[in-house]
Specification:
Number of strands: 50
Radius of gyration: 28 Å
Helix content: under 10%
CATH topology of the largest domain: Methylamine Dehydrogenase, Chain H
Distance between the termini: 25 Å
Oligomer: single chain
CATH architecture of the largest domain: 7 Propeller
């Protein structure tokens, strides 16, 4: 007998806690990480291809592609170790598995970078390790370890539940010429490590007599270090850390009181592009003051001492693109393809945009109006949907329409179409929604908030509240399969309402702790619930005025997280903290299976022949 298997069809989301949000693998394909999967996204075909991490992978935390586009490296966390996997993109096979041994507990890999000759791999870890590991790629040999502890970091910060490594280290780049350099930027510092006499020494780079907060940086032609600041300027240094010049108001903001920080810089052949709030600004470089950076006849000492190596007067704005009508959105990541005629930018609302540089240059030649909003739409396009920017709290699937409803800690409620792969509606709230259930017709939705349970109408362009119920902190709610009832958890009780009259039909009492799960039978005559008190109850809902507990099973010190009722209305399947999957009939455990790990959710297929469990 064959075992049911699940394969990815489409993934809605991006791992927003990763430094390299997206990278071009070819001129028409980008790769990005989500969960324990890497997505190869064809820009032209709008199609996703999936590459899975190892069997034990819990999360992919870093991603990089070699300069020659042959190899991809990604870091993954398992229950026992942290490893970096090197993948051959031509042969589509794993070629190296580099295990980072003896790392402190809870350390994650933040950034991975290939050297320009693809001979070395640099791995930056987060707290509490904070080291840069240099590996010789052909033999997977560790050749150097460099301490890189952010000045603002302290071990006591790890006790904060909101602590995030990305708040203290932003970027790392590798520069081969004129000598091996590792540059890092983080909270309160910009640092350059240079390779001397078999080890790395560092210098802290800053503008003279002015301590500046930098958010991003890049190497321009290997000789110039450009750093984007919180003040909206770009400070420029040579490879030795000597200050050269400042490009003020880099985002080209008309009102200087509204200066936007520079969040990302991407070097181009004849200029560079940078990002700010809701904008991408593209600069064209005229010249470099008579010094040819590619001329190998000039000595490095002569170049580093020449202040005319860089001048902000030699730049002009080629194009400034405003991406959306929301000026609070931050464009915080920017990457280019191999031919440097296309850019992909990532925004703070978890969305990708595609920018056509060829059209931007063409518009300048044709003297098109840079200030026209319609003109801006001509140069870029939306590459992905607007995904959630924080954890998803609840999800439900509509029975009669191809709709999925989700709510998140980012205070949004979203309706997705899983056939057309688009987003139908987004609704923003001032508070977080804890649970939801969509009506089988797809016309209504119930959502639990901190203060009330809200019954809402799903319209063409909006989601509007129609009725409110005085159920505070509702964490579980569910429409019946026919849609005529809905159940909502109120404290330790379960309230059952009529969908059409909003009459409170019955109150199911009996749980002594938090109710984690409520599920209806296929014919809506019964309901099963389980909770933190270790109780599993089978309820009868036959008539409006009747309520009856038909079965119960209690296991003390077990937190049952989910229970479902089989189509025969007698068998119950339940999972919990005891790491077992149980089948219960007539209040007795008839079968159980050791799952070796805690599963938090189970679901029975419509045929009743397949049971899926997740954690």
């Amino acid at each position: 007998m064959s075992i049911a298997a699940v394969a990815h069809e489409y993934i809605y989301g991006i791992n927003f806690n990763i430094n390299s949000k997206a990278i071009f693998s070819t001129n028409d394909e980008i790769v990005f990480a989500t969960g324990n999967c890497i997505i190869r996204y064809d820009v032209n075909k709008k199609k996703q291809y999936f590459m899975m991490g190892s069997k034990d992978c819990n999360e992919i935390t870093a991603l990089s592609i070699s300069v020659n586009k042959r190899f991809m490296a990604f870091a993954e966390i398992t229950d026992t170790e942290v490893q970096v996997v090197v993948f051959d993109l031509r042969l589509m096979v794993n070629v190296k598995n580099i295990i980072l041994e003896k790392l402190p507990k809870h350390t994650r890999v933040m950034i991975i970078k290939f050297s320009e000759d693809d001979k070395y791999l640099f791995v930056q870890t987060g707290a509490p390790d904070w080291k840069i590991y240099q590996y010789k790629l052909d033999k997977s040999v560790l050749t150097m370890v460099v301490d890189n502890i952010p000045p603002s970091y302290h071990p006591s910060l790890l006790d904060d539940p909101k602590y995030n490594d990305n708040d203290y280290l932003y970027e790392m780049n590798i520069n081969k010429d004129p000598k091996f350099l590792i540059s890092v930027v983080g909270k309160g510092y910009l640092r350059v490590y240079s390779f001397k006499k078999g080890s790395y020494d560092y210098i802290d780079v800053s503008k003279p007599n002015n301590q500046t907060e930098y958010y991003c940086h890049c190497w321009f032609n290997n000789f110039i270090l450009m750093a984007g600041s919180k003040d909206g300027n770009i400070d420029v240094f040579d490879f030795s850390g000597n200050y050269l010049d400042t490009l003020e108001n880099a985002n080209n903001v008309p009102n200087k009181s509204d200066l936007s920080p520079v969040y990302s810089i991407c070097p181009l052949k004849e200029g560079f592009a940078l990002t700010g709030k809701n904008a991408v600004t593209i600069y064209k470089v005229n010249s470099f003051g008579g010094i040819d950076l590619k001329n190998q006849n000039q000595t490095l000492n002569e170049s580093s001492n020449n202040k005319s190596l860089f001048s902000s007067n030699q730049y002009k704005v080629l194009k400034k693109l405003k991406l959306t009508n929301d000026d609070t959105i931050i464009v915080n990541n920017l990457v280019k393809n191999g031919t440097e005629d296309e850019l992909v930018c990532y925004t703070s609302n978890n969305q990708f945009y595609f920018v056509d540089l060829y059209k931007c240059e063409e518009s300048v030649l044709n003297d098109m109006d840079d200030n026209s909003n319609d003109d801006n739409q001509y140069f870029f396009s939306q590459l992905s949907l607007s995904y959630h920017t924080s954890g998803i709290s609840a999800l439900d699937v509509c029975a009669r329409k191809s709709l999925i409803a989700t709510c998140s800690k980012d205070h949004t409620l979203r309706i997705w179409n899983y056939i057309d792969h688009n987003i139908e509606l987004i609704k923003y709230y001032q508070e977080e929604a804890f649970c939801l259930s969509i009506h089988p017709s797809g016309l209504y939705i119930i959502v639990g908030f901190n203060d009330k349970l809200r019954f809402m109408n799903i319209l063409v362009d909006d989601i509007r509240t129609f009725k409110e119920f005085n159920i505070r902190n509702c964490r579980e709610c569910k429409f019946s399969n026919g849609g005529q009832y809905f159940a909502a958890v109120c404290g330790n009780d379960i309230h059952v309402y009529s969908t059409w009259t909003f009459e409170l039909i019955s109150v199911m009492t009996g749980h002594n702790g938090k109710v984690n799960s409520v599920k209806w039978s296929k014919d809506d005559t019964k309901m099963v619930s389980c909770g933190k008190d270790g109780a599993v109850y089978l309820w009868s809902v036959l008539e409006y005025a009747s309520k009856k507990r038909e079965g119960e099973h209690v296991l003390k010190n077990c937190d049952y997280t989910c229970a479902v009722l089989a189509h025969n209305n007698t068998s119950i399947y339940v999972v919990g903290s005891d790491k077992t999957l149980k089948e219960i009939e007539d209040s007795q455990v008839t079968r159980e299976m050791n799952t070796r790990e805690v599963f938090t959710q189970i679901i029975l297929s419509n045929s009743g022949k397949m049971l899926f469990a997740g954690k």
